[in-house]
């Protein structure tokens, strides 16, 4: 291991490669900040640029872009509630209310620190545990994956505000429905396309994410009554304070530690990735928060005591550290098994294959400089991100000081281009506008949007794993309880799903 | 009428949506072999439809009646938010539709400049010089950035015609 680390350090710590890490982080942050352009788009855009480099340098640049884009996505989530990627949706839950309350600088600083610690701890875990963690992930069966995803979906109740549990479930269900639109790849039949060729490949994640978040946010900004709020936000941003008090740091330390471990473990599971990690970390912290944390508070010193979803800094630090740790964790199955842990690592897999490298167990032996250079560049990238982003925070935070008359059309323009540049199909723009209109209406009725996105993202994987599990068990549902792991996951899922309903029923009986 | 609330109406609409989804799920064409499989293309949509109807029904029956809601509102001082739509957002939405339609025809630069200028105008901006400068500079800067990354943006039908005429 030491020898491997030395190989990695030797490869990364040369001026050219250090410059590549720095450039990757800077480009990734800028692209990731633009609503609609997440790490997948950023890496896909940069792959042609890396064709002239040797494989290790190419991967170093792409790893930097990955981290930069994740951090940039968090920045747009916090400032304008427009997560370009699903992994930063949970960041917006408390990050955006914090920005609205005038703590945009603090929110961005906490995000930077949490990302740094999460990424650093995960890089350490990766070095120490890559070989045996990949064995554990390899041992997971379809039934385990199915139940893990089902648990992730039922945990949406943890993300919803009080009294909005059923609405969150409605949105999850709607997300699952939208995920089934398109061609069923196993049977080769079209579902819910209604004869439209534009829907054969299904609805793009980007179209749904942009429609429900960035574009609907822009339309909401254009609604009457939002002017004063935006003006207020802009004036607060001008006097934003980045300092994190010692008390807040002490409160956040265990949160970041727990979330980093959780994020890394979830990230190592193929198919799970940063999205589930950030949602689970947020849900876990929300449940772990003492009851006093549900009091309403307004002063800066009470940010740890604010209710979750209204600007609690624990609710911001947890998903931020978890998603960064999961990004590192997702490299475990990619580098050791050749299985991408997320959409982004799938693009990286494509890049590795394009360089003529076959990821898998032999990567350790055949291409040690690529394997260890990627690992070391992760840590170096995290250092650069902290060094690069913290001093830039006051400038980044001024993004919303652009007048509303300009900001709204510019958000609309970037959302539209983010969707258009992926497919070059104007139907996607029209679909995005329709989704945004429905989203605005639903948001006015207090329906949460994040469960819709989570249901949509997990829908395809959920179906694949359920199909495999059902086929292996010959149509029997016994796979839900025939092993201790599946039994435990089933019990937890049922408990999470039914407990709020039982509480609701009990309240109805009492009244 | 007093029992109709926005939440109950949402629950009812979702039941209808789930029922329609379930109906169309049963229309998914299956070949003989798929029909005999334990899990086919209809299986998950059918499960989702059943779950959707169940959730919709729970939403329909579990919401507070208007009397208890009014009492809760009096207690918390909260007022039910009503959807408030105006011409500005509607115009903006119409502009995006027109922009999508014009992109392949007028090309990126022309359609984007026009879209941005009209959007600024719709949002209430009246500083003409600044507005026009931004509407023209942003698409050019964006195209330069994109083309430096090796992505080609279609000049559109009119752009091609103009290029043809100048050649």
TrEMBL record, chain A:
Protein name: Tripartite tricarboxylate transporter TctA
Domain DUF112: 18-454
Transmembrane domains' residue ranges: 20-47, 59-80, 110-133, 145-162, 168-187, 199-223, 261-282, 334-358, 370-393, 405-423, 485-506
UniProt keyword annotations, A-Z: Membrane, Transmembrane, Transmembrane helix
Domain of life (superkingdom): Bacteria
Automatic annotation (TrEMBL), chain B:
InterPro entries: DUF1468
Keywords per UniProt: Membrane, Transmembrane, Transmembrane helix
Transmembrane segments: 46-64, 85-102, 131-153
Matches recorded under Pfam families: TctB (PF07331)
Sequence ranges assigned to domain DUF1468 in this UniProt record: 9-146
The keyword Endoplasmic reticulum is assigned to this record: no
Taxonomy, superkingdom: Bacteria
Keyword Transferase: no
Protein name: DUF1468 domain-containing protein
Species, as recorded: OM182 bacterium MED-G24
